[in-house]
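[[Encoded backbone]]
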Amino acid sequence: MYVSEIFSSFQGEGPWAGVKQVFVRLGGCSLGCSYCDTPDAQRPSRWCRIEREPLGRSFYLRPNPLEPQEVCGEVQRIWDPSFHSVSLTGGEPLEQPEELAVLMSHLRSAGLATYLESNGTLPGALARVVKLAGVISMDVKLHSSGGTGDLLGRHADFLRLTEGRPVFLKVVITAATDAREAARAFSVLSRIRKGAPLVLQPVSASGGQEPPDFERLAYFQHVAGDYFDEVRMIPQMHKHWKIA
């Protein structure tokens, strides 16, 4: 499997912000969101950088691809009981579904909880790994925010597959986000998982889009609250902590 990096840090997004995790960032994503803050992981790379020790911020390189059991071994090497889970992120991890399923099985056998971060557009791939995921972080991509096209049908199919699994939704809000597009997405997805927490994430200034102002954020919070039971406004905290 093609891995961009393996490292330890603190989760910076969503309701689990602040928990200590080992991150496995897989290489490759076909969406190309305009606000992407991990452009180096959009394509598989020749090398994977791996942290030498927990929170050490010192890395060495290994050539790609790696076998899933090798990735699990590297995770275990820097794991200690203070970690919350293993974040499987990208890129888009579900673009390597066969290898991801094997990796998640190895992690489960090792007793390590998994936290799957996905752009929510590959329901067929999710079906192969959903029962292995401890928590699913599902992005909701709005064309007016990231220029991705209309992905709502794929998002709905993806979310249906999470029934019975812990999941939360995360949508990036920019100064250009269209309220009608957002309300349509909230309406469709809330009919599937109304009780799933919805996180509104103001775009980071480094993401290539203009951040929304306070009044705009308050408006989207109001709109989302008409559809979901739990709505939170959480920025990318790792940007504020200056750790990524």
